[in-house]
Amino acid sequence: MKKNKQNISLLKVENIKLKFGSRMILSDVNFSVEPGTITVITGKSGCGKTTLLGIISGLLKPNDGKVYFKGKNILRWGDIRRSFYRSKNIGFIFQFFNLLNDYSAFENILLPTMFNPFARNASKKAKELIEYLNLKAISSNHPETLSGGERQRIAIARAVINNPDIILADEPTGNLDDESAEDINNLFIKLAKENNKAFVIVTHDHRIVENSDFHYHLSDTALVLQTKTKNRSKKPAAKKPSSIAKIKPAGKTSQNKSDSTSRKNTKKAAKKTSAKKTK
């Protein structure tokens, strides 16, 4: 019998087990993720939360279990296909931003398109994101001149430039002050609601937990769904109205000249930086 596509989750994790030597890290971990939802994972430091994100992204292989993306088990794919999966379908947001100081904010946003063979009209898409996320005033700045909140917003734009289905975030507000953390939380809600993005967020931030759709707690190798006391119902209080209704998916048309030029310039800058370091 054929599977009913309507019943297939965007992401489904089944019976994941992982050991490091004799130490059990994850045991029979099960959960699923749907489009337009925010799923948070809490737990004490070192319990395996980031490791679980690595398994979801295909960077790590567990000892046992399955990870289904749109009904297909990514753990059965080879390295190249899993790389394409990460490049096209997964966006990453980190606690320490991981921006390149030699590049402007605009160039940092463009970087993932250099490694995505499916990317089209990247410069146009980056400009739309800059407008959507209210980053125009800082788009030409380099990361060292930006605040923590501004850097994280650039990192979020970088994470969604390839229009991924799933965004994995590892302690995204861990290095931010309260006001910046609140802005980032609202931005996650905005992207989930308006652009149907699925978020899986590892966090200790109670604001993200309270406004999530699903909350799991990882403890003693087991992932347990928590009873929600407060559901995400309010719209984010954005400081400025967005100039576009939603992020447009990358088209299938050939790249225009300006797009190609921007990407070539970014590659040249990367080569120069690499040459300097080798010297």
Structural description of this entry:
The structure is a single chain. With 279 residues, this protein is an alpha/beta fold. It has one domain (35-58, 83-278): P-loop containing nucleotide triphosphate hydrolases (Rossmann fold, 3-Layer(aba) Sandwich), CATH 3.40.50.300. The chain has 8 helices and 10 strands. The strands form 2 sheets. The protein has a 6-stranded mixed sheet with strand order 6-7-8-3-9-10. Strands 2-1-4-5 form a 4-stranded antiparallel sheet, covered by helices on one side. Helix 5 (148-160) packs parallel to helix 6. The protein is globular and about 50 Å long. The model is unreliable at 233-245 and 249-258 (pLDDT under 50).
Layout of secondary structure:
Elements: E1 11-20, E2 23-33, E3 38-42, H1 49-56, E4 64-69, E5 72-73, H2 79-89, E6 90-93, H3 105-110, H4 122-132, H5 148-160, E7 166-170, H6 178-195, E8 198-202, H7 206-210, E9 214-219, E10 222-225, H8 257-278
Parallel strand pairs: 3-8, 3-9, 6-7, 7-8
Antiparallel strand pairs: 1-2, 1-4, 4-5, 9-10
